[in-house]
Design goal:
The chain has no helices and nine strands. The chain has 103 residues and is mostly beta strands. The chain has a single domain, classed as Jelly Rolls, CATH 2.60.120. The model has no long low-confidence stretch (mean pLDDT 97).
């Protein structure tokens, strides 16, 4: 999907890790939400409250889910899921343009 139609977008940016991750929240008519943003190159750890589906629009990264030892590489057009009440490590090697869907 190239765009979201009939949504609301929160104007205030979500800024994390001293500006290394910046996103905006998108609210859908059915009550679900997502964030649309960028993560700049570097290594970060994110904690999750609810399950997440991460779609990579462009860029490159490696991800290691909590409790796993292996890293998996992701690039444009790929996605990965993260369980709720968990965390994941991400190493961004090329600025990441992403959509994170909260389930």
């Amino acid at each position: 999907m190239a765009q979201f139609d009939n949504v609301s977008v929160k104007k205030k940016a979500n800024v994390y890790f001293d500006g290394k991750c910046v996103s905006h929240t998108v609210l859908f008519p059915n009550g679900t939400r997502a964030t649309v943003g960028v993560i700049f190159p570097g290594a970060l750890t994110f904690n999750t409250g609810s399950p997440e589906l991460m779609e990579i629009n462009s860029g490159a990264c490696k991800v290691r889910l909590s409790g796993e030892s292996d890293w998996k590489a992701y690039g444009a057009g790929e996605k990965f899921t993260v369980p709720g009440n968990s965390s994941f490590d991400i190493e961004v090697t090329e600025t990441l343009d992403y959509v994170c869907h909260f389930e």
